[in-house]
Amino acid sequence: MFRRRPLMRAAVVGGTAYYAGKKVSQSRAQSAEQNQQIADLQAQQAQQAPAAAPDSSEEDKMAQLKQLKELLDTGVLTQAEFDAQKQKILQSM
């Protein structure tokens, strides 16, 4: 009867260690997979970003020109101020 307890204890400890090791391994594999997916998405976004940037900046500048025209029409800006700001915007395009 005394011999069974050490064997059972060893079996329980060994089984617990095996299960814990298996869970740690699964967790590391899942973490590595998630990191790879994040890296892939970042690479895709980096490739797509340069194509989208010129369109948005041109749209912003067009919006600025329209806003300047509205300010000119309402009398907030003089024709000289409007022309100066318009040249700055057009030169940066």
Describe the overall structure.
The protein is mostly helical and 93 residues long. The chain has one domain (4-91). 90% of the residues lie in helices and 0% in strands. It has 2 helices and no strands. Helix 1 (4-74) runs antiparallel to helix 2. It is rod-shaped.
How would you concisely characterize the structure shown here?
By secondary structure, this protein is mostly helical.
Keyword list:
90% helix; 0% strand
Strand content: under 5%
- Mean pLDDT across all amino acids: 83
Question: How helix-rich are the residues, as a percent range?
Answer: over 70%
Number of domains: 1
Number of helices: 2
Low-confidence stretches: none
Distance between the termini: 90 Å
The biggest beta sheet reads:
none
Query: Which structural category do the helix and sheet elements fall into?
Result: mainly alpha
Radius of gyration: 33 Å
Order of helices and strands: HH
* Shape field: rod-shaped
Task: Tell me the number of strands.
Answer: 0
Present the secondary structure layout.
Blueprint lengths: L3 H71 L4 H13 L2
